[in-house]
Amino acid sequence: AQSVTQLGSHVSVSEGALVLLRCNYSSSVPPYLFWYVQYPNQGLQLLLKYTTGATLVKGINGFEAEFKKSETSFHLTKPSAHMSDAAEYFCAGLIYNQGGKLIFGQGTELSVKP
Amino acid sequence: GAGVSQSPSNKVTEKGKDVELRCDPISGHTALYWYRQSLGQGLEFLIYFQGNSAPDKSGLPSDRFSAERTGGSVSTLTIQRTQQEDSAVYLCASSLPPGGKSYEQYFGPGTRLTVT
User: What is the per-residue pLDDT for B40?
Assistant: First the structure.
């Protein structure tokens, strides 16, 4: 069965520090991969996606992620954290020949300290 | 343009009552999804509609849950005889048909359901 795993349910960084949120997938077929952000009492907003092509993808708000097939990973990074980045982040995978349903990781809550 | 909208934003109901949750997808999006977000289970897929095809109901947790999509647009998720474990945020998303270059799902703000 396909699964997506996020390491660390809570990550805390200082403002200006590197943000690294980890995501690994388990699938016999490399899925399409997404990172979503959720601010309190809001829906999910797409940060970035990997489908095909370049393995380093850039998203909104200065975030980027790199698809590494050999490591079955799709970690999310941002060079310098901002207070407004505090939110919950979800990694998700989609198997393209199995409809469009997303399989989500457990989520990582990011806190940013001043 | 208008995004995905859901109503109501909050719903409190008594155990055993039926509830209906509504989702209005983005115009032109033929695919519509329901997910549930709860503390214990995270984000779970419930059901998926794509055009006129039979829906993928594989994520519905019990036969108390059903959904329909009328006219290929608005969808209603119905929960019968609600239980306390049904308390969660129900999220709706829509997208262009999966395939090609478009796999992005756009999410609504959710309906927070509380069963007392």
Answer: 74
User: Are B111 and B4 a contacting pair, CB within 8 Å?
Assistant: no
Q: What is the 3-state secondary structure (H, E, C) of chain B?
A: CCCCEEECCEEEECCCCCEEEEEECCCCCCEEEEEEEECCCEEEEEEEEECCCCCECCCCCCCCEEEEECCCCCEEEEECCCCHHHCEEEEEEEECCCECCECCCEECCCEEEEEC
Q: Are B90 and B111 in contact (CB under 8 A)?
A: yes
Q: Compute the nearest-CA separation of B45 from chain A (Å).
A: 7
Per-residue pLDDT tens digits of chain B, which is 116 residues long: 589 999 999 999 999 999 999 999 999 898 999 999 998 778 999 999 988 888 999 999 999 999 999 887 999 999 999 999 999 999 999 998 766 556 789 999 999 999 99
Reference B77, options B42, B34, B37, B38; nearest CA is B34
Dihedral over alpha carbons A19, B39, B44, A55 (to 10 degrees): 10
* Closest Cβ–Cβ partner in B56, B101, B107 for A44: B107
State the pLDDT at residue B99. 65
Q: CB contacts < 8 Å between A and B, how many?
A: 61
What pLDDT was estimated at residue A80? 97
